Amino acid sequence: MGEKTSDPEAPSLSHHESSISIEKQERDAATAREWARDMDQSTTTNSKLKNPLAALSREQLLSDVEAFAKEKDLEHILDDLRKGALVAQDPRAFEQMDELTENEKELLRREKTHRWSQPFMMYFMTVLCAGSAIVQGMDQTAVNGAQEFYFAEFNVTDTWLQGLLNGAPYLCSAVIGCWTTAPLNRWFGRRGCIFISCFISFAASFWMAAAHTWWNLLLGRFLLGFAVGAKSTTTPVYGAECSPANIRGALVMMWQMWTAFGIMLGYIASVAFMDVSHPTIPGFNWRLMLGSTAIPPFFVCMQVYFCPESPRWYMMRNRYHDAYKALCKFRPSTFQAARDLYYIHAALTVEEKLREGKHLFHEMFTIPRNRRAAQSSFFVMFMQQFCGVNAIMYYSSSMFREAGFDTRMALVTSLGCGITNWIFAMPAVYTIDTFGRRNLLLTTFPLMCIFLLFTGFSFYIPDQTSRTACVATGIYLFMIVYSPGEGPVPFTYSAEAFPLYIRDIGMSFATATTWGFNFVVSLTWPSLNKSFTPTGAFGWYAAWNCFGWVFCYFCLPETKALSLEELDQVFSVPTTKHINHYRAMLPWYVKKYLLRRDVPPQKQLYDYY
């Protein structure tokens, strides 16, 4: 063996430095082992979840299908189940399958070439989900105009009480509503949960409209919170479980767009009823504003039981005949219904095995991959509120009045916020999958910060016309950049960040986060505005947008168009490694985007397998 030679130019290490280096190497090695262990476990898990049929031989698959049909008394559709299982096992190979007729192959081709060609019931279900989202949005903003009148009628001058009246639904939703979703779904099904939540919205609307004291109004608004949490969690799940995979993402994304439409309707109700009066009923205008929110939930309640229940929910209750009937209404053919029936059954079997003997809420925070998903979901949901949007949604009329508008013009100008929010939420269906979740946030956080500062400092303009014009412009510009960014990203991001086996509880956690901080914003704005002045209050939320950009850049992984395995790899990267990578990348971004230099391709943090 050759003798080792030392490099004369190599730096020498002292004993202390050497021990520190060894300790660091040991820590890095331990981190690497932990990361590799998580990756091995998640790879095995998600290979099953991605397609639980892929690893089976043809003989084993067909044998399992026959046993399934016999066990569930579905032997009358055994032929469709066999063909459907073979297609589900390898969806790309259907052209070479002799078992399929030419008509069945054409149906499978149309799934890709005519993905929006769906049965009537699929569109009917989509209208139901859109109606539920409209209920959600209208419940949020009808109070914007109504508060301009009921504060005076009930002599509510304390800013904390004003905030509590407006924020009561979101307190109830965060503490109770979101966490009652699971038992409501378990006992009554997806349709039952939507019906109950919309019926509560319907009843609460009349309660609020008939309130004769502030505490009576507070109880009505607190009751509304039972509906807010359950509805916002269940409706997207119901839509996703009924939809075919090729349009599922787009339908789930429409939740935010139709919520924005409902937000606009809440502003329209304020403008429509602001001058209405009654000789014997005090506050008739604000009572109509709040009472009008009973209209959308009434129609949802009338419609919901004309839609089939979620096939997945039926199967979780071992009601396979009902699940098959529901799928036949949601799919173009019985063959496709049988395919999805067996595939969902196989996926549920794997998920049930994964859940056995596990404390899911505990695992969400103790397993590093799950904890990072919870951290990222918490961040996007928290920032959806602390970017300042709901301070504007709930108090824009007061903001415009403080800027110099009279009450009438303040309500009309607030309507512009709702229209802007809805119009610019539409492109998000395209941009969220084109530009990515992370890039949308990195682009919109600085812009929201700038427009909030512009709005806040506009209150210093001495001329009233210029002041009101600048305040309105700043708020409108803020809504334009919010709508495709922090508007749709949080729910989309949270829905895909968690592993499938804890996704239900993960979404409950994420939804409770957004409604909890929604309550904080609505509770504190009146006092914040009074203590900080409008300039300081807008500056406060501008600062949070700066924080949002920093955290997003250093700590938030991208989830756009990633498979289950790739998502596991992304969230298995330690946060410190994520921070160090993007810190090292800062000079690269400066050279490429600011100095406009030619630079080598950026170093990748993830190597997808």
From TrEMBL:
Enumerate composition-biased segments (Basic and acidic residues).
Answer: 14-40
Give the keywords, sorted: Membrane, Transmembrane, Transmembrane helix, Transport
| Transmembrane domains' residue ranges | 120-139, 159-182, 194-215, 252-274, 286-307, 378-397, 409-432, 439-460, 466-484, 505-525, 537-556
Among InterPro entries, the record links this protein to: MFS_dom, MFS_sugar_transport-like, MFS_trans_sf, Myo-inositol_Transporter, Sugar/inositol_transpt, Sugar_transporter_CS
- Show the GO cellular component annotation of the record: membrane
A GO BP term here is: myo-inositol transport
Name of the protein described by the UniProt record: Major facilitator superfamily (MFS) profile domain-containing protein
As for family, the record states: Belongs to the major facilitator superfamily. Sugar transporter (TC 2.A.1.1) family.
Which Pfam families does the entry mention?
Sugar_tr
PANTHER family named in the record: MYO-INOSITOL TRANSPORTER, PUTATIVE (AFU_ORTHOLOGUE AFUA_4G01560)-RELATED, PROTON MYO-INOSITOL COTRANSPORTER
Q: Which molecular function term from Gene Ontology is one that the record holds?
A: transmembrane transporter activity
Q: Where is this region: Disordered?
A: 1-50
